[in-house]
Amino acid sequence: MGEVYRARDTKLGRSIAVKVLPEAFAQDPDRVARLEREARVLASLNHSNIATLHGMEESGGRHFLVMELVEGETVAERLKGGAVSVEEALRIGHQIAEALEAAHEKGIVHRDLKPANVKITPEDKVKVLDFGLAKAMSGANASATARSHQGMESAPASAGLSHSPTLSLAATQAGVILGTAAYMSPEQAKGMDADARSDVFSFGCVLYEMLTGRQAFHGESVSEILAAVLIREPDLSGLPSNLNPRIPDLLRRCLEKSPKRRWQAVGDLRAEIEAVAAAPRSMPAPASTAMQTRPLWKRAIPVLVTALVVSVIAGMVGWSLRTSAPALVTRFSISLPENQNLTAEQRHLLAISPDGSRLVYSANAQLFLRQMGEMEARLIPGAGTGVTYPFFSPDGQWIGFYSGQDGAFKKIAITGGAPITIGKTSAPFGAHWYGDQIVFGDPTKGIMRMPSNGGEPEILISVKEQEGQAAYPQMVDRGRAVLFTLAQPTGAQSLTERWDQATIVVQQLASGQRKVVIRGGSDARYVPSGHILYALGGNVLAVPFDLKSLEVKGGAVPVIEGVKRSPVGQTGVAHFSFSDNGTLVYFPGAAGADLSRTLALVDRSGKPQTLSLAQTAYEFPRISPDGKQLAVGIVDGKEQAVWIYQFSGGASPRRLTFGGNSSNPVWSRDGRYVYFRSDRDGKVGIFRQLADGTGQAERLSTADQNDLRHYPLTPDPSGKMMLFEFRHPPGGDSDIWIFPLEGERKPKVLVEMPRFQSHAAFSPDGRWLAYMSNEQQGNRPEIYVQPYPGTGAKYVITTEGGGEPLWSPDGKQLFYYWNSRIFAVDIHTEQSFSFGKPSPLPIVGAIQQIGGPRNYDITRDGKQFLVVLSSSPTEASQRPIIQIDVVLNWLDELKQRVPFK
């Protein structure tokens, strides 16, 4: 709805709150109109329990509200410690009722009353906030409300206010939900008109939560919460036992499903609170003597009869709903916090539990779990870092994942705790938990499996090298067959074509018969509706599929447009997941490269200077030793190549590498050569090419085809040795190695297992080596420095995370990247090694994946940083919204859109 900032009114010398529209919606007419409606609502209200509006302003095309700054905590924050006393609940409730009464007298319905929208000042004054969803009551309802306040005038609402949208089926299908599920009235949840009695229902929900410490209507998903609001009665047994009996009655009348049976005016409700507040507690009435003396079997008869009648009625209602009521397809989005960024997007980062009640995702290389009925996700600390490929056990009680720092599959209970290692393996291509087995793709062997309780992986389906690489398996047909993707080996095709032209196959385990079911696509999943979903480009398509005959029964139809894919086609990953009960979750985005990137020089004050280059998918820029040229990787959506750019602008950018996919440029010390990684000739390795483009590229190393981290880092100060990353053994942890650039070129290890080490950089004088490592198990990556050659000494530079280190040209500072910021650390090496406290630089919008190659560099005078930005520097200063799109009951929609033929 908006962003609220604490601000200072310099003219009047007071603190204020400023509510602005996010920049992404600043020009949206509907959003601006909604903000204006809120301003008109607040301008018409003048009450001590409602936050005051000082004015509405506009500057540079941005609209904002200037409001009273309300200090203190919200009711939601106070309830984190549990229920409050009945006296406090009634005191707070009385002031909320007075605020609602004042709004209703003006013909205004709040429509989003909840604990988070009620603040308590340090002086115990209650303030009702956020009238962003407020709506003027329509004529009949407004007149009825005005008549209920005899002797009070009701100001007519403007016509614009009455057009504020409410929840409806159409709005829901468009992904718009107005209100908060757990506090909506039944009529609001159904999309009907919401009048003053809707606020009475929401008030009852808030009062109930203050008295019990839990929500009146709850569930593990939004659909379950809405169902509870519509069908279930609140459980009043959780109320304190010694309440005045008028308080439960007050709540019952607030929470009646029918608006006609509720309190008809909040003023009557306020008067009732005043009456019971005088005696909020009473002793429980003694049990009836007659009841106590009656035989047990006679006392049980009424209870049993009541239970039987309720069961029959509930069964009839449930059958009626199941057979006649169509499932409501509901769409909404969950935004990740600003301090969470997706990492390792070439691997699956998102999964939903089989029952749809929980989702898990990987951000900042860590694991987060979110209950669908809760507002925030929580970190699963025991999972450690370098976490990708999360997946749920069939019963939803465990989360499996791949630990990059340990090179192993692990599992952890949804309640947290210590992770359990399932088995060591190389970096997998997808994983699926079926029964007591976990199946996964191995690009060099085929489809593997291992026991979910731990054990050695074994080959389930062998795939020969000439057949391609097996990825993203799923057990289907009660475990009798496997659905998976077959892609050509690296180097056989361009990056994108490799996966968009892959084949999707299903293989029976008993006979070994393999059948191609889809040509052109990857990352296929069979869903309970009887369809196969698969990714092609930036979309997910669906085809009806018969498990008995293992045949497609209709044409492909795009069903999800704009799904985040693996960057630059590195893998076939599509970031979506679904539950058995029909909930779909996915990261919205697009396939291929981000062609809107720019390169900029940013000084230490944060001022950017964009280079005169077209926007495209830049990566890993490196400045030449003389500071006159730039080598940078560019991805055009199909392949990667290294280009050379003159800072003087006297010549057009020049492509340096041809053939295969080439990336990760590194300059030689004298500037004559550019070293790079390439998969040309179908074999990954390190090459070098004369920087002027003459001659042929020379291969310096050949990696195992599964070694995705085999790339050059930096030459040593002598220029005769090259640092590079190397998985040893193949598929194991990444270590830092060095090899001679001439002669035999026999490599040797510098920093090795048992932990993950990467991104090493020599200090300018060659005496020190900085790198990132997960050396301490369970910890996030940190920055380390050790002498070169090694003496056994080691210094931990960071304690709160860090990656991708870079030395300043004079060696007096070390830079690193963490949580969307570049940090600087002062380094002293003259007599002994010492370092200062890290501090962030005011550089905003630099693109960098933790664990990925360094995406920034520094000029030779140390005054400017060369960074990759998303779009222009102005746009890059705003963090892009990372969100998870959720669709409830999506499989019902899928059946209608893609029927069987």
What labels would you give this structure?
901 residues, alpha+beta, Transferase(Phosphotransferase), domain 1, Neuraminidase, five-stranded antiparallel β-sheet, 59 strands, 18% helix
What's the gist of this structure?
This protein has 901 residues and is of the alpha+beta class. Helix content is 18%, strand content 34%.
Account of the 3D structure:
There is one protein chain. The protein is globular. The protein contains 15 helices and 59 strands. It has 3 domains: 3-282, Transferase(Phosphotransferase) domain 1 (Transferase(Phosphotransferase), domain 1, Orthogonal Bundle), CATH 1.10.510.10; 466-593 and 887-901, no CATH class; 597-870, 6 Propeller (Neuraminidase), CATH 2.120.10.30. The protein is of the alpha+beta class. The strands form 15 sheets. Strands 27, 28, 29, 30 and 31 form a 5-stranded antiparallel sheet that branches. Strands 52, 53, 54, 55 and 56 form a 5-stranded antiparallel sheet that branches. A 4-stranded antiparallel sheet has the order 1-2-4-3, covered by helices on one side.
CATH topology value of the largest domain = Transferase(Phosphotransferase), domain 1
Major beta-sheet overview: 5 strands, antiparallel
| Percent in strands | 25-35%
What is the CATH class name of the largest domain? Mainly Alpha
What CATH architecture of the largest domain would you give?
Answer: Orthogonal Bundle
Q: What is the overall shape?
A: globular
Instruction: Give the structural class.
Output: alpha+beta
| Residue share in helix | 10-25%
Q: Any idea what the CATH superfamily of the largest domain is called? A: Transferase(Phosphotransferase) domain 1
Number of domains: 3
- Write down how many β-strands occur, each being a DSSP E stretch of 2 or more residues: 59
| Rg over C-alpha atoms, rounded to the nearest angstrom | 32 Å
The number of helices is 15
